[in-house]
């Protein structure tokens, strides 16, 4: 029984609230065909075959989350995201309670994104999973093996996963220092998919797609960006996030040039085709990368 | 696929390159008397075809020692054309850089113009074009190169293809089904010109020979057929150049390294082995080949390779403990691996996966050890070696790979000439992180040294791994010191209900449920809050005569040149001694391999029983200099967290005299820990086997200096990582600025990239000393 408006369902006679799904608004995907193929392959399931639970590993900003959004979009599945951090407890992974707005009762039960995805047959994506303490992750074990259920102590109920439920997690490489994930989980999270840095061509293409306002200036500005990057760090390539931040700030600086001098200054007014110049890019670069 | 004209017939074999089914078809046509052609044409330029024919002729008669086509050889030729769509960018590059195009870096040219100065023809026995050349040589038929010799690299779009492995025995059906998709793969600007030239030349060749066989890429087939059937006179006087009429001198013959060759050998090398072993020469009259003899079932071959890998992996060890570890790690994962493999084939529409995808999937699911075994089995092949083709340069993938194109280089045997350029990788796209072992035939082959050999340094990935695991150990030890408190339940159960506290609060009249809240110290910045050094690793306690002490360190004088102000470090060297001991180990040493061109460049393998590090082993020279420089102002050497001694003195004798230690191999684990204690500020991190207990003497020593011993059991770490940490490689390197250049082939010999495990090290510790303004190590202040 789902109350569409309030996203409430009943489990074991108790009324519980669902977590909110996430609708990603994303530009067209660039590159990563092999990674997409591998995630899709891991999630294919048939008779006597359970879907696997891939773990994405890579540097911050290389596009791990973007990959998950893309697969969610391609499979037309609802996406529920659980953000990992050090204070997550085992019960947070299943169910939590909050003070109720309903005067007839004290508390509301709220299903975690994980259990909501299990119930609704969506995708649960645990971001930064290695930041969660091992003892909190123990609850995941029964979800990721053939049992495919979770026991909530708070709710006093067992929730079984829908057949169409899929699981994926991601972690930054640095959080895996010394193999931080407990063995009981490592053996259940397969395949481990390493997400490397995108190529220069891919980053350039991402900039063009994410910053259409660059217009005709895109090519020379992108070339300037690479020159600046080489000067800043010739050892590691930039992540898409680095590049997007630089160009977003450069565009904002160009917009500022456009609105400054007007009184009052209208912050909602931006030029459709700002006169973005190399100096904007250089300043954005300096602001973001030069400590 | 046969086009008939008044002059005769043209049988075309549109092919997917490097796939055996099409080579098989070409061979079958040439083998049977009824279909044998009078001339052969291929999708190569006339000069390229001539160069290929000339070389195949040289070894066709005598063949390789095994009588098979040597695999793999290649021809490297020049490339001067830039894609028409990149003309404007090329002009802008020249204007903005102020340099001619040929003066720009190959990376810049490839990334911006899609241009590479060289191109390679891989003489792969399973390629239909190479098969056609072999047939032409064996039958002594005229061979024509009908394509253009020089064209720009085409920019092709990817499309999903029905697996060419299934085209075996039914090429015509496969072509008719796939040609509509393959045509989308064309680059109109480049391919249209080529197809016009090919069609014109084929028409001329048809006038000379009644029966012609032509083979080329499937993508060209539709437009080519259209040109050949719709146009009667494509060119008034097209040059139809027969390969024997040309004396090509512009191509460099190379022997292709297996790590590069494997990408041009169908899905995996075993398919090439099967194809070549069942291929009879076409000049030996044998009209009809037995279909069963020539049948190649790729799935069956792959299945056998997998079985062999399972057998070798699960059954090879006599050590029960080792076997159990393997079973535990891989037995459950095996089902997931096979499921993922099958699903991957479904998703990518492949009958069998290529070797790169296969190993990539294995690496995501199975243990490193299994992946190594599987890769070795898949790479088992009768590779052509440099000894067989003396004097030829080696074409190999570079150790460093960036971008989406494969960087390759070829080096002459004397090392005087080397060059690198880019090629489009296949299969496996741009994936370079897949670990493929060097076949045994190539283990001792190294690119010649191009610089003077330098210092003897440890192989840095193992240093990264040791540093990373040391941090992890320190973190585990710190986590033991977590704080526990009880708080009333306010919505989160935290670490569970605290029954005793709840009962106590009920008794007090407070009816709230009490929950446990266990907190670890937060890891805000690993650099500032934790310094795990000195660290002691004890892998295998016990004595063994073969093991000895092995110290390592650097000269402060040498390091001082890395600093803007070298004076403090030089003064420190004069006061306390020049040699900074960075650590030492209890080891058994043996040579692993030497590099044929330079015997002094030997890889030394050290099996470690124990290891003591006073500082991270992954540091580069400026980092060691910066580390030492922090303590340059200390008044006494007792305030310096590492041993210093005059050059020439014995490290162990000095330590023994200073701290009353005996390094004679008896009770060496205790000596390691006791040698660490005097140089610790607060604690010594000790990682030791679960059942090993340190003696009271160690704790007394520590207590006397106010130092704690943070012990962490070895069982916290996966066995495979421990195996790696306890195996070190030392190799002579070439100093390069701040760091060391390792021999290029080391990655291939050891199966590890030089940046492996680098990501596991906390970034602040990677950057320490390399960037201006790096924070000092506050814990020593």
Question: Brief overview, please?
Answer:
The complex is a heterodimer of chains A (291) and B (781). By secondary structure, chain A is of the alpha/beta class.
Give a written overview of the molecule.
The complex is a heterodimer of chains A (291) and B (781). Chain A is an alpha/beta fold and 291 residues long. Chain A contains 10 helices and 12 strands. Chain A has helices at residues 33-43, 64-75, 113-120, 134-137, 141-144, 183-186, 200-210, 218-232, 240-259, 278-289, and strands at residues 2-3, 8-11, 14-17, 55-58, 79-83, 95-99, 107-111, 123-127, 149-152, 157-160, 166-172, 192-195. Chain A has a 5-stranded mixed beta sheet with strand order 1-2-3-7-6. In chain A, strands 5-8-11-4-12 form a 5-stranded parallel beta sheet. Chain A is globular and about 65 Å long. By secondary structure, chain B is α+β, with helices and mostly antiparallel strands. Chain B has 27 helices and 24 strands. In chain B, β20 (683-688), α24 and β21 form a beta-alpha-beta unit. Chains A and B meet through α1, β6, β12, α7 and α8 of A and α3, α13, α14 and α16 of B.
